[in-house]
Amino acid sequence: MPSKPRIVTEKEFGGTYEIDGLYPGYGHTLGNSLRRIILSSLPGAAITSVKIEGVQHEFSTIKGVKEDVITILLNLKRVRIKMLTDEPQVLSLEIKGPKSVTAADIKTPGQVEILNPEQHIAEVTDKNTTLSIELTVERGLGYVAKETLQKERVEIGVIALDAIFTPIRRVNYEVENMRVGDRTDFNRLRIFIETDGTITSKEALEKSIEIMINQLKAIVGFKEEELELAPAISLEFKEEEAEKKEIDAEFLKTRIEDLELSPRTANSLANANIRTVGGLVRKREEDILGIEGIGQKGLQEIKRALSNFGVTLR
After folding, report:
1. Tens of pLDDT along 165-195?
2. pTM confidence score
3. 277 within domain boundaries
4. What is the CA radius of gyration of the chain?
5. Are residues 53 and 160 in the same domain?
6. Which residue among 32, 39, 294, 305 is least packed, with the fewest CB closer than 10 Å?
């Protein structure tokens, strides 16, 4: 049997870990799987939208500020944030020049911490200029393009940003042969992980292993399709009489992504192994709230999406 992970080296933002005694070929099988999970499935926080006073779009310039708006947005994307809540948070920045503005000037609530306060944002060169910015920070997974986020921003002057939620800067692995008993073709897996500081590299490895185990547990054994084994579910349709009717079996097979939920909510449901409407409507509201990444806002979004089809949660 393989050994538990062993620390080879650890620094502030990175570490190297080894797993010994893997059966021949399993070094690459395990290493590639863990690498993909580490890059795609660990939650983090990022600035998702910005509202700059007096600015209507990202191609603007600001009088008395050295950088144009696009450069300011690029600098804001580099700000790394640690957030202790799943609910979106609003940060603010208001600076009167002349001053070099950094991430340390951002005012944050108690549940939010700026990890790189030295990050440059802009240079206000005019003493009569005040740079006022409102920032929305959210938790999510991986990378979400601004075009996707823009669909959720309807307020004029709100600029969506490409959201880099992943707390991982770099991850790589290598496999070498080792001796186990009389055999010399067993594998030693060595994994290198570098984070942005919002989590440690050790936590990143531990969480990725947990995610892999949970996913594999969910598919152990063969099982007939739930819809064929279980009786048709009766759920409340939102009609005047609020009477219960059977939901069409085809609707229960609808995939979660077809409900047009936000990427954050859809990803959280997928990580909880909820992939169809049938799997979703079997859950109680308290079950949904227990899913990592879904707070009250996500729950309300799910309820609204289901209500479009006349369905409510249990």
Report:
1. 999 999 999 999 999 988 899 999 999 999 9
2. 0.64
3. yes
4. 24
5. yes
6. 32
